[in-house]
Amino acid sequence: MKKVYLFTSVLLSGLSLNAQKIEKNVSIPQSRNTYTVAKAVKQNINPTAKAQGDVLWNDNFETPANWAFTAGTNQSAGTTGQWSVISTFPTSLSSQVGNYGFPTSFGTSGNKYAFINSDEAGGGKKQDAYFKFQNTIDLSSKAPGTGLYLEFDNIYRRFQETHSVEVSKDGGANWIIFPVNADVAVNSNSGNPEHEIINITSAGLAGSSNVSVRLHYVGTWDWFWGVDNIKITEAWANDALLVSSFMGTDTATSQGADYYLIPSSQVSFPGQLFTTAALNNGTATQNNFRIKASCPAAIYSEISGPGLIHGSTLAMGEIDTFSITTPFNPTDPGTYNVSVSTDLGIGTTDSYTANDTTSFRGIVIGGNDYGRDNGVMTAGFTGLSNVTAVGAYNMFNIFDDFQLGSIKAFIPTQSSTFTTDGIYCSIETWDGSAWNLLLSTDIIDITPTNDNQWHTFNSDQGITLIPGSTLIRATINYNSTSGIRIGLAQSCPSSTTGCKLDDGTTSGIIDPNAFMIRLSSDYTGGLNENTFVNSVSVYPNPAVSTANVSFNLKNNANVDITVTDVTGKVVYSNTLSNVVAGNQKVVINTESLNNGIYMVNIISNGSKTTEKFVVKK
Fold first, then answer.
1. 559 exposed, middle or buried (CB, 10 Å; 0-12, 13-18, 19+)?
2. Does the domain at residues 533-615 carry the CATH identifier 3.40.50.300?
3. How many Å apart are CA 31 and CA 478, to the nearest integer?
4. For the whole prediction, is pTM greater than 0.85?
């Protein structure tokens, strides 16, 4: 079952800051069953060893009696899958690795680790679960104010749950909470394992002989969290941590989307900027905190200005947003990689560099494809629940004339129960107040024999996408609602992707990834072209009481017309016998149809042409 939470029913604001930019004020999370196999930013490595004596306390869960589970006040009665120390990953989860790609072991010394299994708890069961170290920890040898870290390895798959570590300097009378993995996108997996370093200096543990530590998990039929090799260490004075980073065009003049394939036709492409959130994770105040971006192959090396909130000076634990405002925009064709990292200024050396850097890899300049995705599938999008998604889209700005030859979409491996479903692509343009359908392609049937590959949907209409105010929405549309998986790539800026819903509205997605859908000037000939019927249109669109279907029949023939809803149910049918060649029009009464998206299918001599329309009363 797919699980997702609808936060509000208002899904897309039709307002824009200018003719090129759409502002969405509400987004919906992905389904729980969207699967993710990788994520960026955090480094999946083991930390380098620190100086001898810096570890003040540690536990590797090899003695399970050292830890005990306690239910919180919001715990559902009878909930299973609670905290325990295990040595074998649960079979109920390992059987799902093929779909979701999460890690199943730590790959570190020892066999045992702490684990909580929200998937086992099942639908409607809330876990509010603590796992507490049963002995107190003596840190009285450290002077008050000494900088401290809490470090551990962890593996997880995250949906809507929350992770935290909690510490006390008075034996558990009062607890200080430190969130963990709060920056992780919905439906993301950890590394194998992923090392966490949390600055807990502000809790004032140094000098206390009565320190307590516990883990806290809150979730309702979410996924899992495993923890191993937990320890308290002395903090570094100088440690910058890169939290997240995004690439995109300037939001003042465009939608702010990221692009990994910039074709030769887009000679006016403005280049891309980098926006990064970073944290001072050390104990020393940093007076020259910056972010830098570099790509030696493009002779590109830039450093940010001061942070948005704190400027150049970040005290311990402070986070800020930094922007690289010189566009990355190489002119020579090729494939480029850009590294973004923290910088503490001349004369200050970061003591731990494994958490400083992320990369934007595989940016292609030149060729015929215009793409938002980086070509590396990290997830398979299965849609939304609480609402019915009928399509998924990326937004594109057009900077120079683009002759559209085809649309390309990656459809990943489907579930083991999948049989067949149809998809088609569409292009819409934004006129400043509404989206207008420009074209719809023919339907391609996806089966277990042709999934896990790119599919090409050719445009037979000779359309040129024009620059200026044109904002394009390229959509992969479901022909039904069976939940076919659509390829997702890297995390991307908000308000640049989204879903179409069955009521004709749209929604953004919380923590979005770019859909693997591209525009191309390549053309390989029509797919499933109806050689007997062309020039099909439906108007008005949206329809209220009637919809006029016009088409051109090339030869005298019988014509079958059907209308189906998003579930594939036929809601209208009409057989026309001995129709003469030429322009034709059929009027369909839509008064009895519910609001939503419909497909009109025109079949003649064994060939079919399909056109989409909306009923909105």
1. buried
2. no
3. 16
4. no
